[in-house]
UniProtKB/TrEMBL annotation:
Residues 4-246 form the ABC transporter domain. GO terms for molecular function: ATP binding; ATP hydrolysis activity. It comes from the Bacteria. NCBIfam families: sufC (TIGR01978). This is FeS assembly ATPase SufC. Keywords: ATP-binding, Nucleotide-binding. PANTHER family: ABC TRANSPORTER I FAMILY MEMBER 6, CHLOROPLASTIC (PTHR43204). Belongs to the ABC transporter superfamily. Ycf16 family.
């Protein structure tokens, strides 16, 4: 079992404090949802966990199974089994998706050894079926000219290929049609099990209805101000964030 323990995490961008003491524990075998108003620091938290150097960590700790990951660069965090699905995926013209997936898998799964191409591609094709993702995309440049839904399917395909221990999805469901949301949810659901945990950052109930997370957290002004179960999602849908702001805001 893997455990990611975040304690008192503080982070800034360009000298502006964004995270003001985040406490959160994610374990494999669990799916967590993270909600919160725009600007509350959700993407910042995802980026800091993954090690994006633009964000300055000014306090607190992040520990993965006894390793202080704040000291590690992004690729080493990925090698330890962390995965971040970006809100705005990068396009890499000239690198086919098949090649990209194979390189990424070789780094993550076999310490740089070469994978057997035929059996590797067989697994990737099965995963593409699972996501209703046209196999013609394997030969296309990664994300180059992909629609929103195709980019998200490509991301989930990376997830299924890399088999991380803990994955973070930053608004992966935003702007997707219903079929694409279902594919994304099916991919995450396929990973589910004792060796996999997820943090789903979202504004919407739909993906959470599919995934039924065990825990729901609300981030506000750079802190987790509320944690509980699915009832929080219903409450937010009915009442919006005003009650959170009133209860936990600077003036509250
Ligand atoms: P959320 O994902 O919850 O909407 P973010 O983490 O994106 O929140 O942003 C939190 C705050 O940090 C916002 O006030 C935002 O304007 C600011 N911020 C985020 N990224 C940057 C950046 N690259 N440069 C300057 N400010 C940023
Ligand atoms: Mg935002
Ligand atoms: Mg965000």
């Amino acid at each position: 079992m893997s455990v990611l323990t975040i304690k008192g995490l503080r982070a800034s961008i360009d000298g502006k404090p964004i995270l003001n003491g985040v406490d959160l524990i994610l374990k494999s075998g669990e799916v967590h949802a993270l909600m919160g108003p725009n600007g509350s620091g959700k993407s910042t938290l995802a980026n800091v966990i993954m090690g994006n150097p633009r964000y300055e960590v000014t306090g607190g700790t992040i520990d993965l199974d006894g390793t202080d990951i704040l000291a590690l660069p992004v690729h080493e965090r990925a090698r330890l089994g962390l995965f971040l699905a970006f809100q705005y995926p990068v396009e890499i013209p000239g690198l086919s998706m098949a090649k990209f997936l194979r390189r990424a898998a070789e780094t993550r799964l076999s310490q740089g050894q070469n994978l057997r191409v035929s059996s590797f591609l067989k697994g990737v094709r099965a995963d593409m079926d699972r996501l209703s993702f046209d196999k013609a995309f394997l030969n296309r440049s990664l994300n180059d000219g992909f629609s929103g839904g195709e980019k998200k399917r490509a991301e989930i395909l990376q997830l299924l290929t890399l088999k991380p221990k803990l994955a973070i999805f930053d608004e992966t469901d935003s702007g997707l049609d219903i079929d694409a949301i279902k594919s994304v949810a099916a991919g995450i659901d396929h990973m589910r099990g004792p060796d996999f945990g997820a943090l789903i950052i979202t504004h919407y109930r739909r993906i959470l209805d599919y995934l039924a997370p065990e825990f729901v957290h609300v981030l506000f002004q750079g802190r987790v101000v509320l944690s509980g179960g699915n009832e929080i999602v219903r409450e937010l849908e009915e009442r919006g964030y005003d009650w959170v702001k009133e209860g936990y805001g600077e003036a509250g």
